[in-house]
């Protein structure tokens, strides 16, 4: 199964599980341009080990996720799942009008998804640590809840 297939399946399954409309998935890699019904795979020069992504809620009336895939398939999956958590938990505005995307509610969902997809907890905490100091605590709680069946 190709990385694009794995990521597409993950988006489909997470959307179904959480009852959200499946977003359009755009995957950019260091490879050739390839288009399928729901996935656009594009070439980005200089792709490296780490992946990156962005989720938008209103692209032609449908949410969209763009993932630039590096050389590590696990990292690409984590980034895709991270972006799916943004689709499930839209960003909030604080009292000053600033957008807050990496909230406790976001990490609650992200940690649960990472645990279900068996992303190693230490890796997910390391990857998320630049976003929020509280992310580690919340992710650990979700892994514990999922492993005990209390998710």
What is this structure's SSE topology?
Elements: H1 3-18, E1 24-29, E2 34-35, E3 39-43, E4 52-59, E5 62-68, H2 73-88, E6 92-93, E7 99-100, H3 104-116, H4 121-128, H5 135-147
Helix pairs in contact: 1-2, 2-3, 3-5, 4-5
Main β-sheet, spatial strand arrangement: 2-3-1-5-4
Gyration radius over CA: 15 Å
Average pLDDT metric: 81
Given the structure, what is the number of helices? 5
Portion in strands: 15-25%
Shape: globular
> What structural class do the secondary elements suggest?
alpha/beta
Helix content: 40-55%
Describe the model:
The protein has 5 helices and 7 strands; from the N terminus they run H-E-E-E-E-E-H-E-E-H-H-H. The protein folds into 2 domains: 1-72, no CATH class; 89-151, no CATH class. By secondary structure, it is an alpha/beta fold.
Features:
alpha/beta, 2 domains, 5-stranded mixed β-sheet, 5 helices
Gist?
It contains 5 helices and 7 strands.
């Amino acid at each position: 199964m190709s990385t694009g297939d794995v990521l597409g399946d993950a988006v489909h399954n997470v959307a179904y599980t959480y009852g959200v409309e499946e977003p359009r998935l755009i995957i950019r890699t260091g490879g050739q341009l390839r288009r399928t019904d729901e996935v656009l795979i594009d070439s980005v020069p200089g792709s490296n080990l780490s992946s990156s992504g962005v989720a938008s809620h209103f692209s032609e009336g449908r949410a969209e996720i763009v993932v630039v895939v590096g050389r590590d398939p696990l990292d690409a999956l984590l980034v895709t799942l991270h972006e799916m958590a943004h689709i499930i938990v839209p960003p909030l505005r604080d009292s000053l009008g600033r957008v807050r995307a990496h909230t406790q509610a976001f990490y609650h969902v992200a940690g649960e998804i990472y645990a279900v997809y068996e992303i190693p907890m230490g890796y997910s905490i390391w990857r998320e640590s630049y976003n929020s100091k509280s992310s580690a605590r919340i992710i650990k709680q979700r892994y514990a809840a999922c492993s005990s069946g209390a998710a």
